[in-house]
Amino acid sequence: MTLHEKTNYTNIDEHGNLCPVVLNKDTGEIKIKKPPFLAFTKSNFPAITKLSRDNPMASAVYLFLIENMDKTNALIASYESMQEHFGKSRKTMYNSIKFLKNNGYLDIVKSGNMNVYCVNAQVVWNQSQEKIQYAKFNATVYVSKKEQAKYDLTKKIK
To answer: What number is the average pLDDT over the span 68-97?
Structure first.
């Protein structure tokens, strides 16, 4: 098997977790990293349980944001992409996000005309505790298939 440095390799550990594999391009050495993780603050877990019971749609949106956020707890996603993902109306998405914001589950930072959804790092975090103060700086952008269809991504440079 030929290994290519730009390919993302993974391995399954003894617990069934998907673990990233890093290839050292100079030595060819392969290092299996620990699987990605999320750390929930136990003291806030009753609030997450209450959220799922009281507002299932907001809970689903919250879990979507957590699943897709980057290592700084942030995600840029349009209403259109979330509508497509959930099969719900814009108003439903708006009400769910408003509920999450009003109840402290997330903050929303404006970047031009886009919303950056920042999951409250006091509730859930996916890095070591000493990096928690960087929770609002980078973001992963979630774009739906429909939004991508607006652009010809196969166009060649002239």
So the answer is: 92
pLDDT in tens, 62-73: 999 998 887 778
Q: Which structural domains are found in the chain, ordered by start?
A: 1-35 (no CATH), 39-148 (1.10.10.10)
Q: What is the DSSP string of the chain?
A: ----TTS-EEEE-TTS-EEEEEE-TTT--EEEPPPP--EE-GGGHHHHHHHHHH-HHHHHHHHHHHHH--TTSEEEE-HHHHHHHHT--HHHHHHHHHHHHHTTSEEEEEETTEEEEEE-TTTEESS-GGGGGGTTS--EEE--HHHHTTS-TTPPP-
The model's pLDDT over 144-155, given as tens digits with 9 standing for 90+, comes to 777 666 555 555
| Cβ atoms of residues 134 and 72 within 8 Å | yes
What is the value of pTM for the model shown?
0.68
